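Consider a protein example.
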Amino acid sequence: MQPYFLNFHVKGEIAHTLLLSEPEPRLLVDISATAATGAEAPGFRYPKRVCFTVTDQALIDRFRDTVAPGDVIEATGTFDQSGYVPHKRGHIDTTFELLDFVRTETVGKLEHDGRVFQTDTNARPS
């Protein structure tokens, strides 16, 4: 039988973080799969990024103690589209829960489950 899963593995630069205390403590982490541009404004420095959520307090503490915007990480986690998370005046229906990460030095090859993925969006996995 085919196993099903909703997991992700991402490698990129930390573009921005935001620690929220309500409705429950969580850390929002924007990760960019492309290196920063020379722009000063955050929205232009990382024009393409994805937001991930960290809810485990121990992982929030480890993240805040070991990495900062501009650092490169590899992260894994899960995602789902159930319920709605309040955000400003609206709601987010798809959440990416970051469950673990490691700091790396460069953005290069991304390997997962024996496959190598290139950072070029037009490239196919090898």
About this structure: The CA atoms of residues 16 and 87 lie 16 Å apart. Confidence is low (pLDDT under 50) at residues 121-126. The helical segments are 42-45, 57-66. The first helix runs from residue 42 to 45.
